[in-house]
Design brief:
Elements (H helix, E strand, L loop, with lengths): L8 E3 L2 E3 L4 H7 L7 E6 L2 E6 L9 H6 L23
Antiparallel strand pairs: 1-2, 3-4
Length: 86
Amino acid sequence: MAVRTMRVNRWGNSLGIRFPSEFVEKVKLKEKSLVEIITDGNRLIVVKAKEKEPRKTIQELFAEHPADFIDDEEIDWGAPVGGEVW
């Protein structure tokens, strides 16, 4: 485990620290990477966040359903109950 003392500096209305390049390279951080900041007593733990899967397109979402998935039957939801305009 590597340890390095860094100074906390003002960043607008917040406080910030800079990550040393050897730490950035070790955990493969890059600009705009997401990190999780965890508090544990008087400790701050910074963990690289897992990358989210890219959003699927509507075609990708419906590709998993059979072609006859869409039901053309109209559904009666009852009379309007609020200020709906039809």
